[in-house]
């Protein structure tokens, strides 16, 4: 992997880590599910008008949109709105990696190696420790919601694998067409039109302007720029080389939340975070294929 691509991979991890701060700012103004619906709606409109169809089966696009888009961000935004610390959210969401391995084994009959199982066990142990710590602060429900977000992401990954798009960026952009309608409907039921309207009519306040800046970052930097650069890196380099850089996302998220939001993780949470990251890394890497023996 060239040095330029390594720097780009680090840049994407930084952009995605800061994305959680932008979400935090956005949720200061918008109801959580309504924020998710708006996030995808502003991407969906230009996508339908200008981006070519990714040439995949509709059911795979729907599965990816409902898992990666609707489920992940509905659960994540509600979790952060109800008390999930921003930095920990960036970490717990990494549970999508071991979830994807397990779901791939169940539904796609993918082989799970012993070191992957060991990595999953480490990650689960770290998550349990964080959940135990959060339960002491009456924040167990946001933790569970964030894990459900990671599980939804994993289900979306299965649909993405089955789709095998010829252009992953087009596929990712067209995914944004799926979440707006179900998320708008869910927002109407859970949050009500009054809350939606109030969030839009008070955008001129200082909180509203901060939320708009965060919203713009989530859409333009976190989604369009971050996903675009990441997709390019995945095209130019083996996935096994690029993927581990995503483990820098919670490092950036936790550090930025500490510096800018004043979140102070306990030593138990820091230790558990290191265990989770190590487990995800161990579970994500594939062993090198054994060389074939050539008869003399």
Automatic annotation (TrEMBL):
Protein localization: Membrane
InterPro entries in the cross-refs: AA-Vitamin_Transporters, EamA_dom, EmrE-like
Primary localization class, coarse: membrane
SUPFAM superfamilies for this protein: Multidrug resistance efflux transporter EmrE
Keyword line: Membrane, Transmembrane, Transmembrane helix
Annotated organism of origin: Amycolatopsis nalaikhensis
Spans through the membrane: 7-27, 33-54, 61-80, 86-108, 115-133, 139-159, 171-189, 209-230, 242-261, 267-285
Keyword tRNA processing: no
The protein's name in its UniProt record: EamA family transporter
Family: Belongs to the EamA transporter family.
Ranges for domain EamA: 7-130, 143-282
Superkingdom per UniProt: Bacteria
